[in-house]
DNA sequence: CTAAATTTGTTCGTATGTATC
DNA sequence: TGATACATACGAACAAATTTA
């Protein structure tokens, strides 16, 4: 049976409101397909209908939905009922509504698998998009305490710092800084700037293989630099990803910190 | 040598400003330890000094730093110079400043390793903290399309939905919803509510082992519910973690979506 | 609830040393 | 050498957020 609710100990309001089902009943309807008294709530039927249209491609990413008043009319329900359906879709990340602008189908996030062999270019290519690494700048500096610790070199050792933006089909996905042992990778930055691919730049310098040792993830609101470089709206979140890559023999190759436009990627870890 | 800069193609401003060093020169100083003309910029010296005090425990998590005016005076520098040092520490996540309130040493985030055997209680215990799962509510409902797909059951199959908050030492860490096949796990919610541990509740029902199959991660600004349940400041980010756990034989056991207070955890993936 | 005080955040201006062309 | 750009550092004032009286 559906609808058995057991709610305990929630001082204040019940957190289960989102999923409550009602056996609403109208009269003889058949307005625009929503079946009253079918055992399935109206808002669920509407949400499912819209979800199908999005997944089937009738409603394409970026498309604007009709205004709520119009939608509620075509479905033959109250605007509140329609809004509940939209709220459900918004929670799932399928649509996004902005007051005064309208409701839009969101671009599907780039599935970004993280694993021992994570390579940006391969991930993006696998998604049928065109990867590009835009070189921003580089410099040789003395390893500060945390970089020295991660790269397992003495503090003050010269390290090569590279900043870059990663794009997929011209849309900025992430931006970040990576540090490399300078002794091992002299002029990596020049090669990277020329090729736009770290994997290829490393290969040019004789490093054919490396693997991810650790990935650490946090998130926070985007700062000014991220807003600018990733074309984000103020207040949006970024995923901050710290990573350590090592050569096959275990020697640290690069440590870096990147900011990902959180609503354009979904990091995926398979166990 | 330190300071070799190779900056290209950055229309506008230079992204490498943070790391440039200058050989500034003052006079015969010795004010409060900052050495003018030592080859290291004043703000770097200050940043490093404060970082040491934080790491050594002189400045404990949650401690409030002296106000900028006072700090700049004790270091014998202009307030701008001090602020540059603070900005560096804030970027590293060591401190956090709020207008009107002050500057505080941040609590180190809970390292939250994600792997095939991720168990909330074990993670928190390993960090020397006391884990607690607070049961919020549950209900039996018909599987909606996405839950059905993830749990590999037909749409409409009864599933048990459980909402809960996870705390470490009483501080809310995450809050989320998980769906379980109801047929297999009748009354799981009651046992969970009683024990406060999902692992133990599952064991009680005869499920001794399970493993993580996939973890998907995005992030976004916290919504009203998250702000309330996780005691977040508006505008803060949450990490949204979708996970699928399966039994040893590969049968889906639970699928869920949780929101983590992004500034209280750091998800760690080891390859 | 309002007003004042406190504290961080932002912007303008000035000057100086260093690196680059 | 000179011109230019850039990073550092100091000074003053004001804006915005928060706490306190």
Automatic annotation (TrEMBL), chains A, B:
Presence of the UniProt keyword DNA-binding in the record: yes
GO BP annotation list: negative regulation of DNA-templated transcription
Keywords: DNA-binding, Transcription, Transcription regulation
Ranges of Polar residues composition bias in the record: 1-23
Domain named HTH gntR-type: residues: 40-108
GO molecular function, one term: DNA-binding transcription factor activity
Region (Disordered): 1-35
SUPFAM superfamilies linked: Chorismate lyase-like, Winged helix' DNA-binding domain
NCBIfam families registered for this protein in UniProt: C_P_lyase_phnF
Protein name: Transcriptional regulator, GntR family
Species in which this protein is naturally found: Xanthobacter autotrophicus (strain ATCC BAA-1158 / Py2)
């Amino acid at each position: 049976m559906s609808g058995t609710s057991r709610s305990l100990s929630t001082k204040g309001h019940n957190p289960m409101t989102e999923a409550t089902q009602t056996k609403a009943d109208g009269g003889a309807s058949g307005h625009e397909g929503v079946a009253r008294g079918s055992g399935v709530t109206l808002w669920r039927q509407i949400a499912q209908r819209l979800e199908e249209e999005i997944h089937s491609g009738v409603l394409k990413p970026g498309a604007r939905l009709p205004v709520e008043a119009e939608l509620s009319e075509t479905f033959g329900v109250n605007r509140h009922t329609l809004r509940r359906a939209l709220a459900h879709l918004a929670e799932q990340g399928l649509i996004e509504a902005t007051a005064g602008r309208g409701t839009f189908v969101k671009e599907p996030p780039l599935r970004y698998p993280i694993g021992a062999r994570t390579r940006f270019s391969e991930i993006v290519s696998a998604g049928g998009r065109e990867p590009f690494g835009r070189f921003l700048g580089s410099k040789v500096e003395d390893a500060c305490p945390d970089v020295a610790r991660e790269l397992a070199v003495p503090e003050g050792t010269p390290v090569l710092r590279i900043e870059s933006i990663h794009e997929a089909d011209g849309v900025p996905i992430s931006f970040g800084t990576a540090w490399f042992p300078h002794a091992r990778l002299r002029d990596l930055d020049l090669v990277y700037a020329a090729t736009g691919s770290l994997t290829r730049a490393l290969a040019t310098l004789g490093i054919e293989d490396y693997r991810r040792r650790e990935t650490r993830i946090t998130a926070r609101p985007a700062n000014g630099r991220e807003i600018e470089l990733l074309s984000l709206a103020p207040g949006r979140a970024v995923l901050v990803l710290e990573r350590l890559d090592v050569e096959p023999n275990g020697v640290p190759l690069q440590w870096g910190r990147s900011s990902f436009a959180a609503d354009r990627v979904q990091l995926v870890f398979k166990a």
